[in-house]
Amino acid sequence: MMKLTFLGTGTSCGVPTIGCQCRTCTSSDPHDKRLRCSVLLETEQTRLLIDCGPDFRQQIMPHPFRRIDGILITHAHYDHMGGMDDIRPYCQFGEINVYADPIAREGMLQMLPYCFAEHRYPGVPAIQLHEILPHFPFTIGDMEIVPFQVMHHDLPILGYRIGSLAYITDMKTIAEEEIPYILGCDTLVVNALREKPHHSHQTLSEAVRFAQRIGARQTWLIHSSHDIGRHAEVNASLPANIQLAYDGQVVEI
């Protein structure tokens, strides 16, 4: 059994968006408050993060303070890596193993050069950076992880298959040869930005069609902007097995 906690389900600006007075941003429903995208995966033995965005400190504070066995990076954009400096307290358990493809690895070296300097300043995060590639499985604790590739406009990024879970964020398109890595999953997590077309993110309609093609028992939609509308209203319009996730939601897999 694996526990999935949605630490954040919002897009790069978060919801509410600074300065916006739209119906979603002014909603009093806590489900309409969306921090930047990240999830926590836990078994009795292993604890992983997928992405570590700029809201990480706020997101992790309510959770027990114990070792993080690995951080899986989907891509090198700030809303998915901007919280890496805040992992410092967890380094008392040992180095933090971070897994990224070559593009994201290079992005991390540029974002956090002081963590990888020959003579590091005392107290900086102790990161062990591992380069991974699509379709090459690896194991962290009792979790086997299979990276696969999706396209964020023209940027190749990683999705992850972990047991019966498939996790995708920031996808616009996917090559046919990647679909077998997702088929058969019980739980699908995939991005749905808004209904209006976007050059690098799926719309809500595109995400629903993709979810129906994959045919998971349950699909949770993430990386949603304020333009998608209010949580309760959107979910009422969707099939019961394809729903918007919300910050703090816990799902057993």
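^ that was protein a. below is b, sequence first then the tokens
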Amino acid sequence: MSVGLVLEGGAMRGLYTAGVLDVFLDNNIKVDGIIGVSAGALFGVNLPSKQKGRAIRYNKKYANDKRYMGINSFIKTGNIVNKDFAYYEVPFKLDAFDEETYEKSNIDFYATLTNVDTGKAEYIKIVRPIDQMETMRASAAMPLVSKMVEVDGKKYLDGGVADSIPIDKCISMGYDKIIVVLTRPAEYRKKKSNNTLAKMMYSKYPNLINSIQNRYLNYNNSVEKVNELYNKKEILLIRPSRFVDIKRIEHDANKLQEIYNLGVEDCNNKLQELREYIGV
């Protein structure tokens, strides 16, 4: 029996997912494939590498470091999350990613990216995260506050623009069981937003603008599909049991810890249901 795992993004809300996955590690919950979006990809790689606590550790440590993320980085580099420090200094040196363990896991890991020319999602297999850091960075390159990231001659932005919850992709890959981790509580739905700035900024990319404009509809439709599948017991769903007031770019270490702790708590409360679903 094969188990697929879908990980929604959400910038610093993704630390909820980090908490969930650390409970997976504690309880030897195994999966065969992962599709991560944005922060879901960035934090999700710590499951195959078996690095419990790594995501919350480095995010709390550098939350207020001007080199890591924030307006200072955006003004200097055009990226709200600093490319050199966040994607190269941290995982290569300051809190090293264990790529050897990752490779030995034999988990098929895919990062979701949005192709700015087509406006559609692409799912790129991550064999070596360190070597494919630009692909990982592209998956989390938030529109308006990030530069486009070029990978193999194509330009990309945040995977959540085109496919925030890649449940359909996971189903198409043929997994027997699917676990979905969302980072918003059950009542959340996206609202239509003012896209005037996006239309100006991405005027050369009409397909991207179309995806940005329809993002709220696609997201809400995906949530409804996930709810329906969960109610039919066809998937297992884990999501925040309550609202946590946390910014996408959050500098308050206490709030980062709070959303992480909620992930741990909610997953522990779901453990019995999870074990029964995957037959452990």
